[in-house]
Structure formats: structure tokens, C-alpha cells
Amino acid sequence: MFLDSFALRQIGRFGLLTAPLLLSVPVSAKEFPLELEALVVSGRQLSADSEQRDSYAPGASTTATSLPLSIKETPQAVSVITHQQIKDQGLGTSGEILHRAPGISMTRSDSNRFNYSARGYSISTYQFDGLMTPIQGYWNFGDTDWDSAIYDRIEVVRGATGLLTGAGDPSASVNFIRKKPLPEFAARLSGDLGRWDKRRLAADVSTPLGDSGRTAARFIAVRDQQDTHVDNMEHDKQTYYGVLNSQLTSNTDVSLGVEYQHNQTDGAGSGFPMFYADGNRTDFNRSASNNTRWSHFFNETTRAFIDVNHFLDNSWRLRAAYSYDDGNYGLTYLFRSGFPDRNTGEGMSAYFANYRGDRSRQDVHFTAEGPFELFGREHEAAFGWVRTQDELDMRLAGPAGAVPGIGAYHDGQGDPVAEPVWGAFNSVDDSELVQSGAYAVTRWSLAAPLHLVAGIRLSNWELEQVYFGDNRKYSYSDELTPYAGLIYDFNHRFSGYVSYTEIFQTQNVRSANGSLLDPITGRNYEVGLKATLADELDMNVAVFRSEQDGLGEAIPGETVNGRPDTQAYRAVDGATVEGFETELVGRLAPGWNVNASFTLANPRNADGDRMNTAHPRQQAKLSTSYQFTGNWRPLRLGGGMRWQSDIYRDTQGPAGTTRVTQGSYSVVDLMARYDFTPDISAQLNLNNVLDKEYHDQVGFYSQAWWGAPRNLRLSLSYDF
Questions:
Q1: Given Cys at both, which of 12, 229, 332, 387 links 436, Cβ 3.0 to 4.6 Å?
Q2: 334: which strand partners?
Q3: TonB-dependent receptor-like beta-barrel domain: from which residue to which, for each copy (predicted)?
Q4: pLDDT digits over 173-189, tens only?
Q5: What is the pLDDT of residue 292?
Q6: Using one digit for the tens of pLDDT, what is the confidence trace for 132-179?
């Protein structure tokens, strides 16, 4: 039996309730239940790694407020995709996980750029173990396509999260929690085979170092290759991760880690054209592509981090964390725009581009959190300072000399095109972005059933940029972001909350002249009910409203001057989003896991027109699995369903502005896993069982992208 010193300190800090606790502790890579007698535990759940539990039920989370609160104690909507759910659904990338998270929708721009949205707005802020990492909205360094093998779970806080993230919109903040060393030696080797020649091999080894057990290490390596349903396009991904955790003293823990990811797509390209030149819609099959055999995309990222935690005798925790990120980017491709003639296939225009880029990022985070007594009651507080420095250098080379002809485009396929001789690289985006902020948050125990979470953040944001030769500087200083949430416990099972926060969000979208739009300002309101229906079964309901001014809205048919592949935007005031969410997550019965959710988000501009129309207004999601008992215990069956309402875009067709729509649809998945021995198991995932035809995106530069057809994947794993 193993409990680390942090868990023991938390038990001592919060423990008042005596009850038996059922834990699942990996020993030699095998999981079995172990009952601990009369262990003192509070109503607050310990934030144990979710891979040590076979449940969809979440533990404590610090993503919303920096305080280690349970979901029930947090005055915002919080969802957690646990290790068990990732495993059951066979989710191989961070993007696949997000696509199945409650309230989050996905659309894609091309073969490698994805956009995720929640509550009517794009998600622009991500965290790794709590360290803020803003993504590059236009230059894609793979920020939304990490391999899932290195993550224990993903926490999603929906709504405005400016308290911890500074500049942020009322969509969501996503926190990727990395896997840590396990208490005992464990090793797993797994392999996947699937449709479109999918081949995946993963190795995961965790081991203590030395006899004392104070230091442990973990190493993960993944190679993932596959063709796709799109002609002439294939992916090749490599991931390596190592982390060392050591208890330097009885009160001080340190983690050191490094991760390396290299993702490459051969045959990278955009979507297929939705119109013929005569104005009629195209009807290409699901293998339609708009690429060339020589086109390719790659991103290579190395991220190193150190995380030090020191626990004081008064139960306060001090944390210092630092992360350094080095990224390389490349995209060589042909972008065909326009509309082909139905008979000859001619008439499309060509844009040849060869991009190269380098990015370095440094994140630092200092925090202190713990309890204090005042007026005879115990309260909690957290203080922090964060800083992110992001340096980017993007270069572009065009063809040198004559441009190759692109031929015709027939039946969803373009004629072979020769790769041009590339000219010299010229800088197109040389920028440095620095964000910093200090925050303070307290959880006041006003009465036994009533708690107030209140905080404030002071933020600074500065960007210096040379964008296609134009020198620009943007800065915003001493921006205050208040946060307040009131939680009332009706009884030990039900609680209600109201919360309010202000919004300050910079925008990475540009006007027609190429300048960045000014930041968005606004307010976010939320009212919710949280219920513990049974042990490890929670229900959450939330009603929300956000108000924004200065929001960037795409100008139909207009691009940035001199940039035919960059959408132009305008700022609009009076944007609102109103909506409703509900989620049921945890165990319905012993062995039966479920995560079910429904979301309605209605974004409107000042004129009452729908915004963010490339994402659905309504979504319903279900993921479930059942572990049999008795003689059938080795068998687990489950599945999932995703339904979304219609999406559309007003795009430029041959006859002018035309609305293109993808109607509502649902996708159904099934899974089965069988443990042949305690060491050997096999899992089948059948995705899109009904072979539903749908578009992942419509109307982006008058093009579209088919969603993946029915596909089967077989996974085998061996535990040492």
C-alpha cells in the first residue's frame, strides 16, 4: 500500500470524516481494489491521478481558482475527462479528447489546423499542469494535437477564467495534467492496428529509483503512423516523455521532465471546393482532397519543465514551476482556390507557399495556497504570479522563377503538380509576446453551508511585432479582472452557486489592413446547481450569460490585404451568449461508468444575428462502459454518441455570398475490451458505426472537409 507524503498531508489537513476508502493501486501494472480501514478523509476528494482509478468520476481540481476544490465546491462548470474514459474510447490525441468533452465543439480549417469552441467562443488558452500556454491561432505548432499517451486526464473549466489565465474569453480553459511516476514498478507495451493502415506502438515504464522509494521515474515512447480517408494524405507522429519525481525532504517534492513531439503530415492540404464554376454544388466522395504529393506539414516541439512544491507546517503549500518550450514549424504546400469547371476541371487559382518557423516560450508560475483562521472559522487563500514570454519568427519562401501549372481538378482530385524551385526565405512575422499577472483568491467560510470565493487579477500584455514588414507594438497594462462566486450547500448532496467575472481578451485576428483588433471586454454571469447523487456520481447544471464588446467578426469574402489565405475581421459591440448546460458523470452502478452531457449556447451579435456559426448551438454527448462481474469479469463493453445541431457559413460562391450548411447529425461509437490474463488484454473500437456522412467544416474559403467514415481499431496490450 502506498500513499505519498502530499496525500497524507492533505488527509491530515482536511480530515474530519472517518470512513473506509476504496483505492485502486497499481502493483506490477495490475490494478486491484484495496480496502483501507478507518482512514480519515474529508468530504473533499484527494486529487489522485485518475489512471489509478477505473472511474469516470473526477477528483479535486485547481484549474478554475488555484485552490484544490472538488467539482462541487467550484462556482463554475468543470468537467474532467479521466484516464479511464480516454482508454475506453481509444482517444489518441488531445484533440480527440477535447472533441468528446462536454460543451466543446470542433471544426477544422485544413489538414492540420483545428479550432475548438465552448459557449459560443473559440478556446484560446491551455494549461499544462496549471501553467498557462496561449496558442498561436494562425501559426500551428501542433498546440491542439498532442498525443494523449502522456496525459493522466484533461480538466475543462467552461466560462471566463481570467482569474488564472489573465487575458481570456468566456469559452473555456483546458488543463492537461501529465502522467507522474507510479508508486510501484509498472510497465506496459501496447500496439494498435486499424483502418487506413493505422500502426501505433507505445511503451510506458514507471519505476522507483533506489530502495527508499523517495525518487521515481517514468518514460513513455509512442510511434503512430496512418494513412487517412483523404487521398494522398498520411500522418507520422513520434512522442517521447520522461519525468523524474523526488521527495527531497519530508516537506519538499520536485518534478523534472521533458517531452518531445514530432508530427508530420505528407500530402497536407486544404478542403475540397464546394462549388463548380456554374454555381452548382460539388458532390465528391469522402476521399476528396485538395493537396499534392510533395506538400507536407511538420511541427517539432521540445518542452522541459521543473515543478517544486514545499509544504509548510501550517499546511500551506508553496509552488514554483518553470517550463521552456522550443518549437519548429514547416509547411510546404499548394493552395487551390476558386471553382473548377464541371466539365474541364479548369479555372482554379494557385498559391504556392513554403513556410518555416521557430518559436520559443518560457512560462513561470509562483503560487502559495493554504488555510487560515479568522473570526473563529477556517478559510483558504491562494496567491500567485505568472509570466509567459513567447518569441516567434515565421519565414516564407515563394517560387523562384516560373510557377508550375496546376492543371485541372476532377472528381475531388487535382492533376499532379510539380514542386516549384523555392526562392529565399523572408520574415513575415517576427514577434515577441509577454503576458504577466498577479492574482489573489480566497474561499471564505461565511457560515457552515455558505462559502464565498473572491479574487482579483492584475494583468499586463505586450506584443512587439514585425508583420510582413510592418512594425507594430501593442500593449495593455494594469488590467484588473475581478472574480466572485457564492456557493450554498443545501445539504451534503446538493449545492447551488452564482459567479461573476469580467473579461479582458486580446485577439489574434486582423482587420483588412492587417492590424490586430483591440482586446475584447465584457462580463460573464453563471448560476448553477451541483449534486452528488451517489458515491462517485455527480450531476451539474448551469445557466450562463456573457456580454462582450469589441469582438472580432469575420467579414464574409474579405481577406487581409496581400494575404489571400488570411480572413479579415471587424470589431462588433453588444455580443452576447446565453445558454444552458447539464452533465451526469461517474458510476451509475458498480462497474458502470457514464459521462452524459447536453449543452445549448446561443451566441448573438448586437443585431440579434447568430455568431460563430461554424460551431453548433446544441450538443449532446454520451460515453459509457460496463465492467462485468463474476465469470464475465474480464469483459468490458461500452460506447459513445455525439450529436450536434446544424452549422453554416456565409461564404463566397460563384454567384456571390452563399450560405452553406451542415445539418444536425450524430455519430455512434462502440467498444469492447477483454482481459485474457491479468497481463494481456485486447480492445476493439468501432467508430462511426452507422457510417454517417458529415462535414467537419463547411465554407472555409468556400471549401469543405469530410468527417471520417466507419473505421475499426484493434489494440493489444501487455503489462509486465
A1: 387
A2: 352
A3: 280-689
A4: 888 999 999 989 999 99
A5: 95
A6: 776 665 676 666 788 999 999 999 988 877 566 555 567 888 889 999
Please spell the DSSP secondary structure of 301-328, one letter per residue: EEEEEEEEEEE-TTS-EEEEEEEEEEEE
CA pair distance 449, 512, nearest whole angstrom: 54
Separation of alpha carbons 392 and 328, rounded Å: 10
Residue pointed to by grid coordinates 462536454: 102
The answer to whether the CB of 260 falls within 8 A of the CB of 239 is yes
Which is nearest to 74 in space by CA: 168, 159, 154, 201?
159
End-to-end CA distance of the chain: 19
Quote the pTM value. 0.87
Q: What is the pLDDT of residue 570?
A: 87
Nearest alpha carbon to residue 539 among 547, 548, 530: 530
pLDDT of residue 138: 65
Calculate the alpha carbon distances from 644 to 110, 198, 616, 700 in Å. 21, 28, 6, 19
Q: Are strands 125-128 and 172-178 parallel, antiparallel or unpaired?
A: parallel
Ranges of residues in the chain whose predicted pLDDT is under 50: 1-48
Pick from 244, 60, 240: which is nearest to 153 by CA?
A: 60
**Which grid cell sits at 629?**
462481474
Q: How far lies 412's CA from each of 74, 434, 704, in Å?
A: 50, 44, 11
Using DSSP, how many helices (H) and how many strands (E) does the chain show?
4, 45
- In this predicted structure, what is the pLDDT of residue 114? 87
Is 309 exposed, middle or buried (CB count within 10 Å of its CB: 0-12, 13-18, 19+)? middle
**104-108/77-81 β-pairing:** unpaired
Length of the chain as a residue count: 720
* φ, ψ at 444 (rounded to 5°): -90, 130
Q: How far apart are alpha carbons 94 and 230 in whole angstroms?
A: 21
Helices (H), 361-456: none
